[in-house]
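Note to self: the last two entries modelled the partners one at a time, which told us nothing about the interface. This time every component goes in together.
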Amino acid sequence: MSTPTHHSTTHSLSTTGLTKSFGGVRAVDDASVTFHEGEINALIGPNGSGKTTFFNCVTGMIRPDSGTVSYQGRDVTGLPPHRIARSGIGRSFQLCRIFPRLTVLENVLVAVQPHGLLQRLRGSRNAADVGRARELLARVGIDHLEHAEARDISYGQQKLLELAGVLMGDPHTIMLDEPAGGVNPALVDRIADLVRELNAEGRTFIIVEHNMELVMGLSDHVVVFDRGRPIAQGTPAVVQDDPLVLEAYLGV
Amino acid sequence: MPNASSPTGAARPAASSPTGARPTAVRVARTAGLLALVAVVLLFPSLAADPFILSVGVVILSYAVLATSWNLVGGFTGYISLGHAAYSGLGGYATALLILRTGMNPWLALLAGGLIVAAVAIPVGIASLRVRGASFVITSIALVLILQLTFQSWHTFTGGSNGLRVPRPFGTEVLRPEQHERFFYLHAGLLALALLTWWLIERSRLGAGLKAIREDEDKAQALGVPTFAYKLTALVVSAFFTALGGGLYALWFGYLDPIFQFSILVGTYMVLMSLLGGVRSLFGPLLGAVVVGYAVEVFKSQYGDTQLHLVATGVLLGLVVLFMPDGVIPALTSFVNRRRGAASIREVSAEELAQQREEAAR
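The predicted structure of the combined assembly is written out below.
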């Protein structure tokens, strides 16, 4: 489905020398990564290799100690998360985060936050916003649950809800932290299909994932992390045979 | 699971609800309830047996104003301020001092006092809204204690611990019962304004963002909610209404004492009332104020100047947290829903969904 665009040399999201330490541990260590615009990028690596910290630095949840993050030619290092979200980077969280006491529909409507006081004071349940939210809920397949509180739906449905919420912000780049973690195989396929569809619409994906079958089947470009920095990158086939990657994963 | 690769929901009317007749019945019940509430408030002064009962009514409405104002920040964002007496106290003092020192019209002074306190809330919010949870609670307590000490010691300006006499806005020729009645309606009007503000914010995109902050602040920010600006907005609006409540009470009561104006107890009452009624409900704090306010007055009149009413309040809070953690209104609502046999998850059946789609396609 996805059409790898080999000529894509315009780099939408990249980092240079990104570093973040917690105490004495360098979770992200001088990481310079360039993700491919318009493709499905995967970020893999052993547990504790700094993938999630890297994600958090890029999306502004954590301020990096040094290094830069640039997006579409703009330095976005250290911007607050909502500014980064509005610049076009949407993200999901590891273990899935939704607003448990809001309804499914309200969860999606949260992502409509335009500029200007009058815009913000506008009713959140206006026809246009609600219509679009329902469209997205239908797209991920949980529109029949719109009135349920988000805490009452299943974990898999919550994952789909989180994705619908991210899509409501109409992000150009979507970062997913373990989208297949803890969900059944049928749903993994469904999420993979959604990612392919959304990618075909022109959205760039950056996916942290441990499910290797999914990663290899889905992604165009794979970045392998070990000890806080990229040790290999390339197509799934190239990365799979890289001796450094085998060493990092298997310790051989 | 419906496979909707081509979205069909777009044309559906926004107001459509999956459960058909239910919303109209709810709307009728709500309107009737609201009208009944307005009627009770309007008729109370003529039904009150004596001026004392009427004055209890004023006290309860004053609590309702404060609790509803508190809920503008506490209920929406989940930031529990125990020191909201800082804003009601400052509102009272600002109003009184503007009248005494500048000879300003009392009503103008009340409004100006509210605006001054709202302005004060900006730097306070910038400093204190950086921390969450227990740390925020502690900063809110610190604020009210600092103000108490300041207003007690600054004799030349605030009258210090001798207190401050506030001139009566209606003059001495208006008798006590008449005073009570006028202030009862004034408080009712202010309460209506605070409730209207809460209602408007609740429906807005701002409100959606604030509630998201209450649920998961980081997640809200990742979805593009400017969390800090939103929290600050809620705090400033809340401080404004709390100050108006404090100022109006000062004009009625006629006397300010820093010990009572800047007391933790008043802030605690605002929290207790809101929790009791339900912080997620428009009328939750009002209901809580009626219950707690009435109980406190009864205990005071029955047992005199003991601390028994505090014990009773504590027991009440414990019971509510144990058995109705969301407050009385949500507990009643879910009880009614269960009696009606409504499912807790209102899931649309396959036929209903197909029907909706068909309607949309037409």
